[in-house]
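Readers of this paper often ask what the protein records in our data store actually look like. Such a record has a labelled line for the sequence and another for the backbone structure tokens. Nothing more is needed to write down the fold, since each code stands for a local backbone conformation. The record that follows is passed on verbatim for readers who wish to inspect the format.
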Amino acid sequence: MAIILGIESSCDDTAVAVCQNGQVLSNVVANQHVHAAYGGVVPELASRAHLEHIVPTVDTALKHAGISLTDLDAIAVTQGPGLLGSLVVGFCYAKGLASGLQVPLIGVDHLEAHALSCFADDLKPDYPFLCLTVSGGHSRLTIVHDAANMEVIGKTRDDAAGEAFDKIGKLMGLDYPAGPLIDRLAQGATSKFTFTKADIPNLDFSFSGLKTQVMYFLRDQMRLEPQFMEQNKSIIAASVQRTIIDMLMDKLDAATKSTGLTSIAIVGGVSANSELRNRAKEWSQSHNLELFIPGLAYCTDNGAMVAVAGYEKFKQGTFTSIDASPYARSKN
């Protein structure tokens, strides 16, 4: 029996969870609302907030799980990629905790944790499986051979899908983060405006061109009709969302055909998008594929994905030196 504490602090959420033999016992997130006023995450403010939240969030996660510090068998923590100041807070706290309790430290790659987030649910994929990771900072396709062996076969060349949602939302006058707001506006609306999808070879993504298209489209339309934005906001949202989901599904379909894998996972913050979930479900059923999308609590950054990823590494005996440091950039 192994009880793992998972700590996630790569960006603007302080998230802590406890899992026992891979089963999530608690999952607590301390959000940082201060960034909404700036239209994006301010790194300095994020790291300061992590310093305030880390101790009470760990304490709350342990209480919800009915676990004490002395029950822990290992400490799993996000090692990178992410905002360096934010990572330092969580990683150094985890190092101190592991050292004091004399239990193993398990450094977890943030993207690998997302790929394994579907293991936080009752139904879990078998290795190997194809994983589409889509979030505010990342968009990539990976063959997950096991917890320690993930093969990247496609990634974004510029903006990530979630970043495109947020940047276009800002053009539309929406608050940050704009992705959920666009999803809400798009529900029930007709996507009648057409935007060109980036023609990128192989399995890579590109979303920066879509942002530019929408910027010029809105500029030109509002020159002709100043009220265009307010009168068509839902239709714009639906059109943008359809284009982004089309781009994601095109690449996912191509990756499935090229790899021959029949177990598919879609993870990351954008996997909470209702149209992506519905489209993926219809697509998987029509192609006789097994689809795994985490519950909404495990889509955005959360401690549970770190805890279950840590448990998978714990079973393999993959531990991290207490002298290790966090890294800000992805190794892939």
